[in-house]
Amino acid sequence: MSELRYTKDHEYIRIEGAEAVVGISEHAQQQLGDVVFAEAPPVGKILKAGDPAAVVESVKAASDVFAPASGEVIAVNSEVEATPGIINEDALGRGWLYRIKLSDAGEVAKLMDEAAYADYLKTLD
């Protein structure tokens, strides 16, 4: 079973063994509105937790997507780069941005689980 964790910047990371899938949360895509551009980091790039990793633009704004955990980018979602609206349709599924090979799985434990993230969102109202 995969495990979702969230950052306060509204990125999610889904752990799949020693690898992880990264994207933006449902809340983030709702706040952005219609996504018109997405750019993932290049395969092979080494990211540290908190580094700017990707860019998502909507009709409202452009937003950096920060790395929720450290690791090496091993794949990017070319489907999302070609059709960014997929993020609006399925942010937590087909709308992922990139995959990383985790270098420090312990960083993920510091992120919010789904219940903690839901509580965090309530504080933003």
Mean pLDDT: 94
Strand order of the largest sheet: 1-2-3-9-8-5
Quaternary state of the chains: single chain
How many distinct helices?
Answer: 5
| Rough outline | globular
Compute the CA-based radius of gyration.
13 Å
Beta-strand fraction estimate: 35-45%
Q: What is the helix fraction of residues, given as a range? A: 10-25%
* Biggest beta sheet attributes: 6 strands, antiparallel
- State the distance separating the first and last CA atoms: 32 Å
Count all strands and give the number.
9
Stretches where pLDDT is under 50 for at least 5 consecutive residues are: none
Structural class: alpha+beta
What string gives the helices and strands in order?
EEEHEEEEEHHEHH
What does this structure look like?
By secondary structure, the protein is of the alpha+beta class. It has helices at residues 26-32, 78-82, 86-89, 106-109, 114-122, and strands spanning 3-6, 11-16, 19-24, 35-39, 46-47, 52-58, 62-66, 71-76, 98-102. A six-stranded antiparallel sheet has the order 1-2-3-9-8-5. A three-stranded antiparallel sheet has the order 4-6-7. The longest helix has 9 residues, at 114-122. The model has no long low-confidence stretch (mean pLDDT 94).
Give a quick precis of the structure.
The protein contains five helices and nine strands; from the N terminus they run βββαβββββααβαα.
